[in-house]
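Record format v2
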Amino acid sequence: MKKKMIFSNFFKTNGVIMGSILMGLVGFWLIFLIVLPQLSMLDYSFRFNLPPADVGGPKDVYTLSNYQFLIYGSDDTHQTYNSVDLKVFVRTIIAAMMVTIFNILLCYPLAYFLGQSKGSAFVRLLVVLLIIPYWINEILRAFALRIIFGDSGLLNETLMFLHLTSEPIDFIRHDVALYAGLGYAYILLMLFPMYNVIESLDRNQIEAARDMGASWVKIHRRIVIPHAKPGIASGATMVFMLSAGALAAPQILGGPSSLWFTQLVYQWFNDSLNWQQGAAYAIVLLVSTITIVLTVMRIFKVNMGDIGK
Amino acid sequence: MSSGVAVNLEDIWIRFGDFVAVRDANVNINGGDFFSFLGPSGCGKTTILRAVSGFLDPSEGRVLIGGKDMAGIGPNKRPTALIFQNLALFPLMKVWENISFSMEVAGIGAKERRKRADELLDMIALEGQGDKLPSELSGGQKQRVAIARALCANPDVLLLDEPLSALDLKLRQHMRTELREIQKRVGITFIYITHDQGEALTMSDNVAVMKAGVIDQIDSGHNIYDHPATPFVASFVGENNVFRGKIKSINGNEAIVSTNRSGDLLSRIAPAQLGNLNVGDDAMMFIRPEVLKLGPAEESSKSTISADVMNEEFEGNTFSVFLEGDGGKSIKMSVPNAGQDHISSRGENLSLHYDPSNAVVMPAGELASE
Amino acid sequence: MKSDSLIRIALGAYLLIFFSYLLGPLVVMSLTAFNSSSFPSVSPWACFTFEWFDVLFNDRHIREGIYYSIIIGIGTVILSVSMGLAASIVLTQVWPRLRSTYYTMIIAPILIPGVVLGISTLVFWDRLGGFLGATEGSVLHGLFHNGLFLTILGQSSFIASYAMLVFVARLQRFDTGLTEAALDLGATHTQAFRKILLPFMRPAIASAAVLAFLASFENYNTTTFTIIDYKTLTTVLAQKVRLGINPSISSLAFIIIVLTIFAALTLEATQSHKRRREAVAQGRMKPAGKSILPSFMRGNIAAIICVLLAFVVIFMVTTAQSYSPEMCKAEVREARQLEIQERIEALNAARAEREATEEPTSTVTDEQAPASSGAFGGVFDPGNLSTDTAEPEAETTAPAGGSGAFGNAFDPGNLETED
């Protein structure tokens, strides 16, 4: 009854034609591009990888085996753990967190500087400089870092020229390049939300606090950071999700022996052609990252509505 | 000019979920009338206007325009034009495009539209301003453009939702006269929404006073002021001293009220409430400040109130004297300025007289909150 | 006073570090586009050359990739902008108690990892095809397994959220009274939308479209799953970068960087021109006096830089037609040959020594050699390869150079053994 009223109101305010177009577009997006694909992926992750002939047949039943594989590997007795994949998973999550924290620390001073010295031509120039790398392809940015971190890259050449090292350091094998690349790739998604909220902070608040004798640390802890919290949360969420879900940077900058979890997903899909297993891994990635984000948001008391501002 | 089209609201109820915005409204507006809905903000008057213009459907009841039931007819198909509180001029269109928008959507060519827009611009004394953007006009000019835009649609009924509230006092008073003149000239029905009683009383043929979704009284402005039907109307329209008490005796259209703090007082019974009052009922008696007169101190009757002066304010055309009657009852009296230095002095005891036919008593009820 | 200048210095150093981190790699990458060395590097600097641009323009894969990227970009812009606009309009009308749920739903795609979106799109349409009974070879099956179709849908699923955010910001300033006024004046809902809301939203639609196109153009994570047998610029690049790199990619990056700078400067220049005009109109600033510069450029640093940059690019393009690095290259080659000769001798000497002491290890180096030279095949431009046959062999024998630079070429092999 009430639902019906909502719909009739909707069509009354938008008209039948426009209302249908709006409903149709939103419905198509939500149902066919978001909800159903996610559900079908979830469904897929509980199925066996069967040859086409067996699909829909008696063998096509639900199973937990894809998830069990992540935990126990191909060991059916569940005695040993799939240490390789689990290690990749844990490493991905922890490294993504580290990248996020690194980005927060690196961006906060700049966001504060830009946000509080508004208007000047110098600041506008800095913003333009910031925007430029933002629109360079992610792969090209990773490629640029590879040129720098490679064995005969600029960094090694410089270090050797300065006689700081005699042998080239393998930055790629030690994942230095990967972490630098991930931090590099999403740094602006951290900076801009922070900059936006700090810009909206009334400068008088800081002046007033300073007037009352608050120390520099205290001003930031009690005034600037609480005000910037939605922006920091928004940026941190984006950076964490994108780093954990990154594929290009690990493929290009990752060491040969250490993998990113998305690369495992990629292999299941494109190399092993086991979509069901890949879907299960993707679900694990999705659920765990979202759980982490929601938990952290709960701890810091941030709302979903703040994201994307 | 057309003689105007009548608007009838029959048993209208409008609910939003559990909230009743309009309760059983019955209004008959004559064709060609200037009709006002007067009430404090949130009383449901704008809701009624939206029901007439078609932006929402009444939960119950019918809206008839020119005798035709409007149920299921959208705002774009009704013979009404609405002037919004914030005017809602299209900011990206020029003035003349704004005015002739109704012709544009009807598919009429640009040349003809421009001609009509220029005619209307002449009428509202904005010749040659058609190529400006609305943002380049002053408040009063925008106001007139909004009126011209609404009139361009040739509506049978023009609906105005507090259109003057954004203007400053001088301009507001000027626009009142102008609106009234335009209405007389085009001869169509105007339905006007306002919380400003001055606007309602000066412009309207008839006024409906609303309180929390209920229409308390529909009458001419004069009658609303002199013969309020309910305590709410009496206290909302103009100023009034209210005396609470019980009916002691009734004689024809007069009654003696035994007030709580000012003794027994004689009053006329509100015409709308004749027959609704019985001896012993809780009642409220209203005496307007300008009805109270100074009288000899010793005289005492059923139309005299004794009170002490608390303070006095000079308001230009009148003096306002604030008094405290016996038992702490506060009373206000207005005395026209006839060149006196002052009316009274602080602490002085005055005897206030009134003509019982200028007082009005009615069953006790809710007052307008200040 | 003293601590103040200390803060200034610290701030300056911090800004320097931040911007070198941000821009340094792009500058280095741009420079490598002009070094004739066949591996992208700035040191050692061999010869200044434009040849990598030639290689780039003659690369069929990249050309095709750009072509399909543009098609997908246009499709994504149309779909995601209209879905984002519809979703933002619905957001303003949705029942208050549903609003936060609805908002979470339409913002969620931004937070879902791109690979997950790609996979779910792929899986869903495959299954929908099966559900609708589309058999191999039927039109429906073809559509649901078409890389362009799936990529547009997959990308739109999250780019629409970005577009939606742009629209929500603009819609907040829209007075719904305007639509009602239009309806009241007799407009149909469609007319009110077209004549009132759409013109109001036009600037937001433009920025959302640009944003959507760029986001689509540079997307990799989703595309790599949904593209199937087509290719886009990013998938081609990823392929090239993973399998081995050559400076023609740097030259592509250089072109993109220059275009981006142009766009950013033009935007900044027009904005600052507008600001200035407003300031003059409000009497806060005096109009610029007579000057040799056209009025647009007066007092507008961004505009001046923009025009100067244009001259530099034109100059570069014209010199590129006539400039030939052949002389220099020949010299470098000679020097290189000598150096390689020396190194080979030194290595041979070392190997002989090692073989004498511990024989089995030699097999390992032998195994590595063919694998590396295979990886090289794709890296080198055919023209280069024919003149420089000595080089690859020399590099593979130098263990440090080979395994590092082409480390990723071994990836697939490594991965397979792990599974």
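The CA atoms of residues 270 and 303 of chain C lie 8 Å apart.
The radius of gyration of chain C is 29 Å.
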